[in-house]
Design a protein that fits this description.
This protein is mostly helical. About 80% of the residues lie in helices and about 0% in strands.
Length: about 130
């Protein structure tokens, strides 16, 4: 496996683990009602409409932290002169985030921030890793 491919894989995997962990914390703070059918789109929409902003901010924090860490790791593995694996990590996570927002209803403001967090965290992760030498 090439170093760049290994960097992209490791970065994506680490990002997913961090995102899942942070979202798990959010689900503990704001659990689904026990009687809700997750396949009932009307019930899910009502539940999501009643969530506080904090629940969405936890998700955004997970996406940002995961993306930052994944892109940082990809640069560290690939070498600071090769940012392509980190960009691939950021792109994969952006696509996953958009897919998540399409599948589950989200408020409009979350769409804006949800799309913005991935490129911002990608650039920040890449720059931070490059500055570390």
């Amino acid at each position: 496996m090439s170093r760049s491919l290994m960097a992209a894989f490791a970065g994506t995997l680490s990002a997913i683990i961090i995102i899942m962990f942070v979202e798990m914390l959010g689900h503990q703070a704001y659990p689904l009602p026990k009687d809700i059918d997750i396949n009932d789109t009307v019930a899910m929409q009502k539940h999501i409409d009643n969530l506080p902003m904090t629940a969405f901010l936890i998700v955004l924090a997970g996406w940002g932290l995961g993306t930052f860490t994944g892109t940082w790791l990809a640069v560290r593995i690939a070498g600071k002169d090769n940012g392509r694996p980190a960009l691939l990590v950021g792109l994969i996570l952006l696509i996953a985030g958009i897919t998540n927002m399409i599948m589950l209803p989200h408020p409009g403001w979350f769409w804006f921030l949800g799309i913005a967090v991935f490129p911002l965290a990608t650039v920040f992760g890449m720059r931070t890793a490059a500055q570390m030498g």
